[in-house]
Amino acid sequence: MRDIFLKSYAKVNLFLKVGKKIKNKKLHNIQSIIFLINLNDEITIKKIKSLKDKFKFTGKFKKSVSKTNNSISKSLLLLRKKRFLENKTNYKITVKKNIPVFSGLGGGSSNAATIIKFFLKKDQINKKNINYFVKHLGSDLRLFFKYKKIYQKNLLVTKNFKSNHTFYFVLIYPFLKSSTKQIYLKLKKFDVIKNKTFYSKKSAKKLIGTLRQEKNSLEKIVISKFPVVKKILYELELIKNCQISRVTGSGSACFGLFLNKKDATSALRQIKRKFPKFWCVLCKTI
Q: Could you read off the pLDDT of 13-64 as tens digits, one per residue?
């Protein structure tokens, strides 16, 4: 087996509503529009003659990942448990971590989904098997299996958000690890998750107008924990032609959304001057 190279993409929540916990699920109901972006971790898979799998993490954010207990090691364990993978065959998996960890950009879930999709046959990527992995690896895993642009109608239902729009994102990560579990524990007010339809064929401006009426329900909690996030969002709002500025997921990464590369590139320069010690990059939808 030759070395296999895979890209594991990050995600941005354009909005996020959080409802009460669903009975028997112990998880909150949520609603969101999520776009995958061209920021990605780089995964290399190699079959090895060894008694156990080997994991190596490189890149800027490698120090935040456990070498023995991570989303990829857990994925391989589950794949073998369900006999999708032979117990006698082991692999060396190297991950270059370009996506910040504990940032709300979904790096860990994306890594797991990328590995699972690689080892499963096409007919095995079905609702039953996806639910099995989601149960053990987290609900965000569901986002990375089928679509590049997703409307998450509720916790259990994701749909393809058909859109040809290319959006540009200036991402800022203040090197603050935001625990999803801890952020959710502090949430006291919950949204009513309605059976709402977001029309994906809207023009870019109409879609932006709709998104402006939405919010990230976790944003205030992230700001209360990390006050600098409020300053980041404020500075993004001041930039010319920034359409939306929000926290993605449970933070602490923030984004500014732009309709063209020129405006986004100019914004990135301004943000880097304001926050020279933070991680700042320009990305776009895939």
A: 999 999 999 987 789 999 999 999 999 999 999 999 999 999 999 999 999 9
DSSP, collapsed to helix, strand or coil, labels residue 145 as coil
Give pLDDT, residue 199: 67
Spatial distance between the Cα atoms of 252 and 183, rounded to a whole number of angstroms: 10
Task: List, edge to edge, every strand of the sheet that includes 279-284.
Answer: 244-247, 254-258, 168-173, 279-284
Query: Would you state the structure tokens that stand for residue 265, as one six-digit string?
Result: 């590139």
Report yes or no: 155 and 25 within 8 Å, Cβ to Cβ.
yes
* Spatial CB neighbours of 142, under 8 Å, sequence gap ≥ 6: 130, 134, 158
Pick the catalytic residue: 11, 17, 97, 153?
11
Q: Is 140 a catalytic residue?
A: yes
Kindly name the residue from 17, 97, 140, 263 that is annotated as catalytic.
140
Residue 11 known to be catalytic: yes
